[in-house]
Amino acid sequence: MRRLTAIVLVALLAACVWPQAPAQDNGRVRFRAVDVIIDTGDAPLAAYQFELAAETGTIAIVGVEGGEHPAFAEPPYYDPAALQKNHIIIAAFSTQTDLPAGKVRVARVHVQVTGDTEPEYVVVLRVAASPDGTHIPATATASESRGETQ
Amino acid sequence: MFDPREQGKERERAVPKALVDDLGALHDVGLTVPPEVDRAVLAVARQRIAADRVRPSQLRPLLRWAPVGAMAAVAVFFALFLVPAGLHRAHEKKAHKSPRTTPYVEREDIDRNGEVDILDALALAHGIESGAALREDWDLNGDGQVDKRDVDQVALAAVSLERSRYQ
Hints:
Oligomer: heterodimer
Strand content of chain B: under 5%
Strand order of the largest sheet of chain A: 3-6-1-8
CATH class of chain A: Mainly Beta
Number of strands of chain B: 0
């Protein structure tokens, strides 16, 4: 009789817990890469600084890598405290003479996305400067890279 | 119980009367003070003693000024202790509220434009690469030299999440 009661209790407990597991799985997890592109027009880009955030969706930043141009190929500066958060400030500069101009991918940010809501990224360009440190007119955009990483 | 006075009387009784009379005559100057003189001396003495005492009427002017004196003492106390303390507090409060007369400049703000950003790191890197005279206060990590590590420190200060608008 005791054994039967224990089995029934375990079954009830399992029945209570079981529906909660799929609820957690509702927030499916996937990894994405977000490219940040700065367009400086004709002006050479020697330094940049921007803030990236996801205003919708649930993301956690998991890594940052450099850009496509050799002048910004090294991983940029960022606060390690931004990892696992949904916003980050990224900056880099180059003292090289060969500098990119026009549209250039300056950084790639790897994020973990949780849930069904697709994140909307906002990038605020704080600094885009020429080699002598003067601000140049530029725009910045952030978009998910095509190659999704699982 | 031993009483020295009784002992003195016993001794007096033991002295012969003739000796007592002779001694009395020796010191007797034959002068008697009339009672009027006695009274007059006493009256003068009383007057002098009374004159030396402070009369209540003499205290009245002092009592009249006592509240004024007390108020003056309180005023002095306020002036010496409370007013300076209050002024000090007010000054501190004012200093807290009013903008600084001298703008605060962060150490990482190399170009002194009031903002720490990647351009400060760029300026410092240019300074190091060009071999220009480097300021001592650019040695941010305190290792005795201004080099790439200081540039990194400036750049990391620029990207600190404390500067995020999403705080």
